[in-house]
Amino acid sequence: ARGRAPVREGGRARPRRGGGARPRPWPWGRRSAASEGGGARPRPMIRGEPLLRRLRALSRLCIEIGNQHVRCVRTFSVTDAINALRPFYLAVHPDFFGQHPREREMNENSLKKLNNHLQCLQHPGHRAPQPTKLTFYVRETVGNAGAAQGMNTSGFRAVSFTLQTQDLLGTVVNILKSCCLSIDHIQGSKAAVDSPHQNGSIPFSRPIKWDKTYYTFTGYRDPEEELDSSRQLEPTLGLWLNKNVSLALKRLNVSLPLREDLINLKTELCEQLEVTDIRWRKSWGIAHRCSQLHSLSRFALQNSAILHNIKGCTLIFAEHSGMNAAGQIMLGTVDVHQHWTKLLERLPTYHDLHSHLCMLEERISFLLGDVELIYNEDLQPSMMLEDYYRMLKTFHQILVVSRPLFHPRSLKGLQMILEKGSSAPTLLKTGQLRVPITCDPSALQWFILSHAQTARTYLQKEEELKIQQEKLIKVCIEQFFLKRLYKEQSVSSEQMVESCKRLLEEPTELPRMQLCISHFYSVLQDGDLCIPWDWKQ
Fold first, then answer.
1. Contact present, 172 and 186 (Cβ < 8 Å)
2. Helix 347-367 vs helix 385-401: angle between axes, to the nearest 10 degrees?
3. pLDDT tens for residues 16-59?
4. What is the pLDDT of residue 78?
């Protein structure tokens, strides 16, 4: 009876009436114990139920594969990239280069470009990141203590690399390897990303390729087109100038009236206040400088009684108000006139403190064989008078307790720069001896005696470079009919000389232009042309 085929009525199967066992309604398995024992009857099978179960199983499989794919793709996020780059940030962050403005400015500009590149990688649908060449000054840390081969005299390594990868993990690994930093802390993330390919599972690494009409409709940039354009070589100086000279001339013509007003205002205020010079700490625009001079003019009209304290001084517009270590008066651009009034009222006290500071410098110089203590405004732009006086006082007390043995006037002609911190003394390329105030006197004596001759050679070379630089600047101005040729603070005299020599070999005409030698190509808001000192020919 079990072997008989059931009779079909209306497409449904039913058992024959002649008796025999009912066929089991569970095609996927046996009945439960309750049904076997006479309990509740099993649920009748619905038409198409096996197909529905297969579809549900297939759906669960697709969801599981999709979750694995999402985990693989999102294993290394932007947050992970920032955490992985912490050793890099500790080695190049500008806050650690406060006494080295050249390296600080370079790292600030490069970090801006790096952050922009990471943002592009985070949002690839908007625009594809272009290959970017970056240069960082890396200080010696625990992670890169063994990579001191490329250290310069200031104690930093200049590291250059190009960001070419299109994923966060590859970018992070490239940065850390270029700076000789460890990548052990991201090996786990890297293995998680690479594991689907290594284990033979289904990889979902194929990027989404949109149709051209998608970019036309949405306005987004086509990554393939940007990648093709970014693969082109860096433009030569002539090509870049031909493309940007017209824009620079347009901006320059707009700023000419403001430039004339700036010169007239500065001349009038210098004569009215009887000051030596008026300068600016930062490279603000012409309009910003004019507004600051107008503010100073209004202040002079309202507070003429206390202006006699600034006669013969140098005024500098800076971030904070006070007096710097060189005795120059700093007017904070974010301060109101009441802060300026309080500063000018305290100027007699500042002048007395500055005279004591000069006497303290003479005593230290005598103890160190007549070495000259200098305050370098470029290397220590934010050093205030009170802080510098405390530094000198601490250093003088250390020297008095244990006098180093130097013959009088034996070190005359050498220059020394004191700084905070407990780093090792170093010799700068410009010839100055950079010494921390907590340096051991015996170690200081050995360092000075062993580097004295090299320091004299560097100082002489720097003087020759400055003379050669002035001559080349005059020649370039006459040959190219330039209005002005200058360099950024972060560009050394040696780099400026090399740049001027190469510039004289270029068949370029820049009539009435203001040219700045920098590290990057740029057109400033006032029409100044900035070109890198090491441009490609």
1. yes
2. 30
3. 454 444 554 444 444 444 444 444 455 555 555 566 566 566 66
4. 65
Q: Kindly state the tokens that stand for 95.
A: 């806050």
The angle formed by the CA atoms of residues 487, 91 and 127, to the nearest 5 degrees, is: 75
Q: Is the pLDDT score of 511 beyond 60?
A: yes
Helices 168-178, 101-122: inter-axial angle, 10-degree rounding = 160
Greatest alpha-carbon pair distance for the chain in Å reads 131
Q: 151 φ, ψ to 5°? A: -70, 135
Structural tokens at position 85: 């780059």
Structure token pair of residue 116: 């922009």
The least confident of 54-63, 379-388, 446-455 is 54-63
Query: Which 8-state DSSP code applies to residue 23?
Result: P
Give pLDDT tens digits for 437-451. 888 888 888 999 999
How many Å apart are CA 343 and CA 337, to the nearest integer? 10
Is residue 357 helix, strand or coil? helix
* pLDDT, tens only, 241-284: 888 999 999 999 999 999 999 999 999 999 999 999 999 887 78
Give strand pairing partners of 13.
Answer: 8
Amino acid identity, residue 528? Answer: D
Whether the CB-CB separation of 485 and 459 falls below 8 Å is answered with no
Neighbours of 95 (CB within 10 A): 8
Query: 280 and 251 in contact (C-beta within 8 Å)?
Result: no
Query: How many angstroms separate the CA atoms of 475 and 58, rounded?
Result: 79
Residue 421 to residues 96, 141, 252, 306, 355: CA-CA distances in angstroms?
11, 15, 44, 38, 25
Rounded Cα–Cα distance for residues 105 and 140 (Å):
18
Give Rg (Cα) of the chain.
37
- Give pLDDT, residue 198: 43
Rounded Cα distance between 369 and 404, Å, is 10
User: What residues contact 361, with CB distance under 8 A and at least 6 apart?
Assistant: 373, 392
Give the residue from 270, 248, 272, 252 showing the smallest Cα distance to 260: 252
Instruction: Residue 419: name the closest of 373, 450, 475 by CA.
Output: 373
Q: What share of the chain is helix, strand, coil (3-state, %, to 5)?
A: 50, 15, 35
What pLDDT is stored for residue 57 in this prediction? 64
Pairing between β-strand 329-332 and β-strand 314-318 as defined by DSSP bridges:
parallel
pTM for the whole structure? 0.57
- 8 A C-beta contact, residue 459 and residue 483: no
